[in-house]
Amino acid sequence: MVKKRSVLTPTLIAIVGFLTVCPIVMLVLGSFSTGLGAFGEFTLEKYILGYADPELAGIILNTIIFVLGSSLVATGLALLLAYLNTRTDIPFKFLFRIISIIPMMIPHILFSVSWVLLLNPSNGLINLLLRQIPGLEDLAINIYSLPGMILVEGLLDLPIAYLILAPAMASFDIALEESSKVCGGKTWRTLLRVTLPVLRPAILAAFILSLVRSLASFAVPSVIGMPGRIYVLATHIYQSIASGFAADFGKAAAIGMSVLATSVALIYIYRYLTAESEKFVTISSRGYRPTVIELKGAKYPLFSIVGILSMVLIVLPVLVLFYTSLVPYTMIPSARAFSMMSWKHWIEVINDPISLLSLKNSVFLGVVGATLGVALSVFVAYVIVKIRSYASGILESLSFLSFSFPGIVIGVGFMWFFVRTPLYATIWALLIGYIATYLPYGVRPLTSAFIQVHSHLEESSLVCGAGAFTTMRRIVIPLLIPGIVSGWILMATMFVRELTLSVVLSRPGTEVLAVQIFRFSEDGLWGQLSALGIIMIVISTALVLLATLVGVKFKPVEEE
Amino acid sequence: MEIKIKNLRKHYYTGGKTIKALDNVSLSIPANQIFTLLGPSGCGKTTLLRCIVGLEAPDSGEIEIGGEVVLSTEKNIFVPTENRGLGMVFQTYAIWPHMNVFNNVAYPLQTRKVRKDVIRSKVAKTLDFVQLTGFENRPATKLSGGQQQRVALARALVAEPKVILFDEPLSNLDAKLREETRKDLRDFLTKLQITAVYVTHDRIEALSLSDIVAVMNQGQIVETGEPRNIYLNSTHRFVADFIGRTNLIEATVISQEEAVTMVDCAIGSLACRKRSDMQPGDKATLCLRPEFIRLKGGDAGEAQNVFNGRIESLVFIGEAFEGEIRIHDSQLFIKTEPDSDIKVGDSANFTVDPDHCLLVTR
Description:
The complex is a heterodimer of chains A (560) and B (362). Chain A is an all-alpha fold and 560 residues long.
């Protein structure tokens, strides 16, 4: 047993180290090379080319405005929602939770596209509707703008900020506020002088994570920014590798270096802050448990209201997409529109070989990728939690590193690597890239699952006469199932919707859903896009349901 | 069943230092007795227990349970935990949260491939024994601390193990429940006639629960004996101090009399319980338990073991007075009858029976 462990940790360090360090090393080497073909000859040419670009200053300014703006929107909204939900007696609290979680269910690119369909200046549905009002005939609310990008990205980052802030608020020790009130502080004063300062680490952590996410974001800058000629660093990098024959991976790597460095620095601050805020929480949560109020008779009416509202909120973007997929061109809903509806776009998509291929590839990547990713995560989490050594600390840092990876930059790094291997332009390149980039999403839930499996639980099984295998089958695995299922769901849905990494690594033959949808949006084929988008949502939902069903089948509580 | 332990040694290396968790421990645990390993945290008691059950492998030594050698580094024998046929109650209870009470208790039988109807009746019998009948289908997570403790006990007992081991099983219960459970546990184990090895750092638990107590310190067993004997007649300073409240005074042996050993110390010269192994001039520690320092009415005279002291502090705690007295430069704890007519500042005569003046070494 001892021998097995001593092999396990170095093996995992090698695998995870390869996955996370390799793209960075290749990115660095690549940035000092003249091109994919001329690798290894040291040159600063690409840095000079990239950073002497007169357009770069404007792009960086856009990036700063976009990233800060959307993070402010996300954190501000999340703070408001979390406060109302956990700390006031506002009714229908569930609603707040659901509203803040919704944007997670819909792939970012589809969420962005649905806003384009609603608010593009020429024929956005809302613009068309508003123009029917006398006096507003020339109205054109333009989503293709920095404020538009900030709004949509802010909404997309809202859930992640909420998920950090809500638990911090919930475990906030009410006595801190009460003592302020006893000292004569008014509600507002208490909020400003006590509540917010105590929550500052959590608020900053949420803000910084939003910064990282919007810096890495590609869906919004590409679907909403590029048509309005508003470029940020992510789209700038994309441009330098996507311009057909003149693709310049060296320049992309050189600019990517600063994005990566910023992101790693931000994540470092984030880790420091979460460690801080966890400290706060453990101190303050002692003995304090918010009581759960029984709803009794109001339970079902309340539940149905919440259900209906949340349905409307999930369904609206989906509805826009579904509607668009049925009408021949963009028009406001009317009798004429309904009479012209047809399955034309759906049939086109189903008969489009590239769409079908992307569908097949994405499902494969979702299922196989998530399974392999979770399998790796199980071992990594095991070593991190159960073998507390210096080496397992290295593994933990390595596996967390990719949390800071901006997909497009790391894609460029992987490109430098894969081009030198037979994996280039195969689906396996995407698979490896996905697992490397999204490993923390599998390791996180499994780490908490392993923490719950106290070593006494295994040991008492041994004392009861069960061998190692039986202990694994009857004790360890059942206790890990919830972690495995949630890790798998997270990874599978991330993989099916993956855009930023795929947009770099995907080659003819390895198209994936999000990239295909991105191509449709570049070509303005909104009908086909919507049809494929709906299929994408259906697949994601099906995977979640499938995983949940499997989880229920092996459900933790055994019956006699 | 009897357990024999020979020359068990286990060292840990942390931060460049060697910690001797077990320092050449030899021990014999008689059959059908409740045997307690008592000691401060880090003394090696839990390591010893885990070596017996097989969750830890010692560096060297031999363990024999009921005549079967389960571990011998010399003969290269290591019977894995699951084949030792023991029962154990963990400090955390280690109740499996994903199973109900029935499956938790039935588990040892299921792993032994016992027939289903036999399992059912045995589980029912065991649950009845620990007074948990009717809890079969209760999820393990929906149990109170005391109930979890009894499920853990039932699980340890159900397969009729050769030996049952307890690793501080009461330390997670609150004070009142701990007292009740201690009594229940004593009843259960007495009824069962089973060899039990019990690890604790709580002296009251050890004294009230065990047939035999072994006091451990720094990886070694310092003293072994019946609870009363350990308390009233300890021979080691560490044991005397650990097992109960006591006054420790440095003393020098003056002479050996027929029935007593005479010593000289800060409070005068005293007749002590006979230690024939000591020579005049030897250094020893005098151990005086507060409850044996008694008030003596009347005149001191020339009586043996009487000394005059001033009462420095006094607290009435209901069943007794607890206080401190000063004799010359020494301060002693005393515990005396609640109806004594004394108050702070009084001078009084105190006496100690030579039998309760213990001379301890090291």
